[in-house]
Amino acid sequence: MDRNSESTTPHHVLLVEDEAGLAELLERALRDDGYAVTVMHDGSEASDWVRRNDPSLVLLDLILPGKDGLTVCREIRAFSTVPLIMTTAKVEEIDRLIGLELGADDYICKPFNPREVVARVRALLRRSFDWRESPQGTGLSLDEERFEAYWNGEALALTPVEFRLLKALSHRPGRVLSRAQLLNAIYVDHRVVSDRTVDSHIKNLRRKLLASPVAADPIEAVYGMGYKFVIE
């Protein structure tokens, strides 16, 4: 790690990029746009850093020394739904699909203009945090330290697994998450279970949402793909 900046703004970006020149350009562009930035040049410590520091967004290169970007993405998605953008020089469709399947929110191919990357960062953070920080009484509010959830101002009695499931879905509203991605989010001990286990947890979660005074079911099944959280 080259440098670690304490965040003085609402948004702190972890930039993992092994090309020193490109990392410097991206860091400068992000700082000029008002973000605090931490830079790493290999993937060996990235997921542990995310666990300890809870950044606003991760900008992750695919080809890295130490650990490659796909491995880092998989590790991060085992415990976090932090917004994540992957960058790579590989343009093959299969690489893009693998990255998105593992939980990346966006994918940018090199060469690119740093201003384009900043625009993608800004757009993803806006979608994520505008919803994540919605106040109680106007939809969903999650207290991640206490594992408490409020739906239209009413407390929900959720299990830890149900809380993590609702968190994973609601932090990416409108995006379809596969059962495999949801399993990675809800079982932090990496236990081996059937992906249909997700369906049982979804059923229980829906029952609790519909039992609230303002009954509504924001979870939509997408046939053959998974589930998504729909904002009305």
- What is the CATH class designation of the largest domain? Alpha Beta
Q: Count up the domains.
A: 2
Individual helix count? 8
Structural class comes to alpha/beta
* Second-tier CATH architecture of the largest domain: 3-Layer(aba) Sandwich
Radius of gyration: 18 Å
| Low-confidence region ranges | 1-9, 130-138
Topology pattern, helix = H, strand = E: EHEHEHEHEHEEEHEHHEE
Shape: elongated
Description:
This protein is of the alpha/beta class and 232 residues long. Helix 4 links the parallel strand 4 and strand 5 (106-109). It is elongated, with a radius of gyration of 18 Å. The chain has helices at 20-32, 46-53, 69-77, 93-101, 114-132, 160-170, 179-186, 197-210, and strands spanning 12-16, 36-40, 57-61, 84-88, 106-109, 140-143, 148-151, 154-156, 177-178, 219-222, 226-229. It has two domains: 12-131, 3-Layer(aba) Sandwich (Rossmann fold); 134-229, Arc Repressor Mutant, subunit A, CATH 1.10.10.10. The N and C termini lie far apart (42 Å). The strands form three sheets. A five-stranded parallel sheet has the order 2-1-3-4-5, with helices on both faces.
